[in-house]
Amino acid sequence: MPTAFTVLSATPHLCHSCSGPHPTLVRAWRGSELLLEPEGTHFSYTIDGAALLQTSAGHFPLGPGMYASFADGVVHGAGSGLVVTRLGVRGLFQLGGPLEAKGRLRYIDGCTDSLLVSPPLRGDPCLNHLHIPAGTRQTRHTHPSVRVGVIARGQGRCVTPEGEHPLYTGLVFVIAADALHAFFTDEASLDVVVYHPDSDTGPTHEDHPMINRTLVERAGSGPS
């Protein structure tokens, strides 16, 4: 069985592959240049310092706490950050941040989350912000697909059947699909930016705001 919780080192040498039904690559930059080919959708998060994202759409400065999704480009600068790539999926160019103090949606055990980069279509990958208040003991739970996360701020620990794993700002981790885990905090809260390779909410061709709010006139109901 795969390891439930894997810690990755966010250095320019990082190149971690997640196989399975949602092929994913995990890479990082730290005072270096990272070239990202048009092989899918790249999700980036700036951990600290300043960086610059260069894409075909233009050049965009990235400060701490900023996030983006894009098809190809170059990230470079004195700072550090994480890039998670969902291979074979075409997303939209999006740029946002910095992170808010907490999430806008209710989650389990008093936690909150926000959808930072939404799936263009139901089933597509997404990027999320999870806020865990101080003094939280999450209920043990699993996810049906892999999770890749980076600690944006705060500290805590991830509890798995294998043991407890300390969490601190800048730590990058992978949680295997169906792996039992829970996040615990003590005096400090914890904020995590989490990549999901898939989704079960979002628009479809039959269900989206444009079509739902389009009221087509029935034949014979209008003026002659």
Provide a compact summary of the structure.
With 224 residues, the chain is mainly beta. The protein is 2% helix and 47% strand.
Describe it.
With 224 residues, this protein is mainly β. The protein folds into two domains: 11-96, Sandwich (Jelly Rolls); 105-196, Jelly Rolls (Sandwich). Helices cover 2% and strands 47% of the residues. Strands 1, 12, 13, 14, 15, 16, 17, 18 and 19 form a nine-stranded antiparallel beta sheet that branches. Strand 15 (147-160) and strand 16 (163-168) form a beta hairpin. The longest helix is centred in the last third of the chain and has 4 residues, at 209-212. The termini are far apart.
Just give the CATH class of the largest domain: Mainly Beta
CATH topology grouping of the largest domain: Jelly Rolls
**What is the total tally of β strands?**
19
Proper CATH architecture of the largest domain = Sandwich
Q: Number of helical segments? A: 1
In CATH terms, the superfamily of the largest domain is Jelly Rolls
Q: What's the end-to-end separation, in Å? A: 70 Å
Helix content: under 10%
